[in-house]
Amino acid sequence: MKVHHLNCGTMRPPLVAGGIVAHCLLIETDQGLVLVDTGFGTHEVSNPKGTLDPLSRKLLKPLLDINETAIFQVEKRGYGAEDVRHILLTHLDMDHAGGLRDFPNATVHVLDTELAAATNPNKSAKERMRFPEAQREGVTFETHKAEGEDWFGFQAVKNIPGLPDDILMVPLIGHTRGHTGIAVNSADGWLLHAGDAYFYRGEIETPPSNIFALKLTARQTETIREQRLSNVERLKELKTRGEVEIFCAHDPVELARLA
Ligand SMILES: [Zn+2]
User: Per-residue pLDDT tens for 21-49?
Assistant: First the structure.
């Protein structure tokens, strides 16, 4: 399987020097193309106000460049939207699920608790803001339970219908109720897209380091604090084993290392 590392959404939140990225994966498999996260798509670019609420736009300051959309980068490689059969989402936040409507033939895989949180009619104001309904219009979802077999000490959802055995969901609950990592067994070994389980590469290094604005962001956007913090510890441990290449969604240095 060939894995491409894409940036599908540069953002320039205040106080974060150099900005942040939306690190997505485009995977070429025998059964077609698979995307992991979709950043921002053509709908956000052409009509930001129709999808993203004013506060998110102010806090994230997304660049919204058509050249960064997943569909643009898929077509640049000679494929079409219809070649993307499956999309796995780490979670449904608006900077991860933005491109879904650009791939009408894809089945979108999420944890069941994530879709339930996003579609709950009584969700909190914060959850209404982070999960804009427009991004999910006409999208075909397939949900999965956060349980499964052992993968490097984590519980992993394996044998996802239509996907090769080398692509797994690795639940990392905390940032949102159904947040998950996505593991891919690439030609260069195991990759783990950890989504927003952490925001800055130093968080899972030993000794850990962080920058203030991103530490604050992690706190302000967390849903289940204890589980989030315990998952950062587990990722730190996994990193010391040196067997899995771990990266998060928003660190530009991690993306540059892998792209
Ligand atoms: Zn995010």
Answer: 999 999 999 989 999 999 999 999 999 99
Residue 135 CA to ligand 1 centre (angstroms)? 15
The conformation of residue 11, written as its DSSP 8-state character, comes to B
Centre of ligand 1 to C-alpha 178, Å, is 14
Q: Which residues surround ligand 1, an ion (CB under 5 A)?
A: 93, 95, 196
Q: Ligand 1 centroid to 107 CA: how many Å?
A: 21
Residue 111 main-chain phi, psi, to 5 deg? -75, 150
Q: How confident is the model over 204-219, as pLDDT tens digits?
A: 999 999 999 999 999 9
Rounded CA gap, 159 and 168, in Å? 8
Collapse the DSSP code of 18 into the 3-class scheme (helix H, G, I; strand E, B; otherwise coil) and give the result.
Answer: coil
Q: What phi, psi does 113 have (nearest 5°)?
A: -70, -25
Domain tally for the chain? 1
Domain CATH number, residue 126: 3.60.15.10
